[in-house]
Design a protein that fits this description.
Belongs to the nitroreductase family. It is found in: Cytoplasm; Nucleus. Its main location: cytoplasm. Keywords: Cytoplasm, Nucleus, Oxidoreductase. Helix 2 packs antiparallel against helix 6 and helix 3 runs antiparallel to helix 4. The protein has seven helices and five strands; from the N terminus they run H-E-H-E-H-H-E-H-H-E-H-E. It has about 220 residues and is α+β, with helices and mostly antiparallel strands. Strands 1, 2, 3, 4 and 5 form a five-stranded antiparallel beta sheet that branches. It has a domain of about 130 residues: NADH Oxidase (3-Layer(aba) Sandwich). About 25% of the residues are buried.
Length: about 220
């Protein structure tokens, strides 16, 4: 690849890739927001509406938790992990030195976005396109991942830092009970966000030559 980069036709493309590059994992977060809650809600709503899904199945389901409601999900996680310590599944030392500080750091942030997939909504299309039936669940997960990435990038564009967590299935039952989540919604990921109070870790890249090929140029 040459050292001179080609110019994009649309300046918005440059802006898009600058946002992509700026999206990083921030663990040190404060329970503050640089924008109104309405702006955060709009980010999540726009993502739910406009991220693509196979056959337009629209299987992603999203719950936005702010302030005290956000803190509840991490209280749930802490309580569950304490139960695992009491049952002997997790050592007290690991919980005290690693697990609890990490969960407490998530709790100290401003909000959490819960990402779910409604696999049951795929029943009709699986029947209609039976030859692809085993593909629709992975397709739904891919669409959900795109929602996670878009929300994450948009939040960072508005001045937040964020990190993506996966505490399923440990917290699923209590999350469903606490917020009245339908049984068909399956929790996939939790995006924690707040105002960053630390820098992200340095990011290393494997050689692009090992990861990309082009033919016909």
């Amino acid at each position: 690849m040459g050292s001179i980069q080609p110019e994009f036709k649309n300046a918005a493309t440059t802006t898009l890739f600058e946002l992509v590059k700026a999206r990083r994992t921030y663990y040190g977060l404060k329970g503050e927001s640089p924008v109104s809650d309405d702006v955060i809600e709009r980010i999540v709503q726009e993502s739910v509406l406009h991220v693509p899904s196979s056959f337009n199945t629209q299987t992603s389901r999203v719950v936005l938790l702010l302030k005290e409601e956000h803190q509840k999900v991490w209280d749930i996680a802490i309580n569950i992990m304490e139960g695992l310590v009491a049952a002997g599944h997790v050592s007290q030392e690991m919980f005290d030195k690693s697990t609890k500080p990490k969960l407490s750091a998530f709790r100290a942030a401003y909000g959490t976005v819960l990402f779910f997939v409604d696999y049951e909504s795929l029943a009709t299309i699986k029947e209609k396109f039976a030859i692809y039936a085993d593909k629709f669940d992975p397709f739904a997960l891919e669409s959900n991942a795109m929602s996670q990435y878009l929300v994450w990038t948009a939040l960072e564009s508005e001045g937040f830092g964020a990190n993506l967590q996966h505490y399923s299935p440990l917290i699923d039952e209590q999350v469903a009970k606490t917020w009245g989540i339908p049984a068909s919604w399956k929790l996939d990921a939790q995006l924690v966000f707040g105002v960053p109070n630390s820098e992200p870790a340095e990011k290393a890249f494997a050689p692009i030559e090992d990861r990309f090929k082009v033919f016909g140029k």
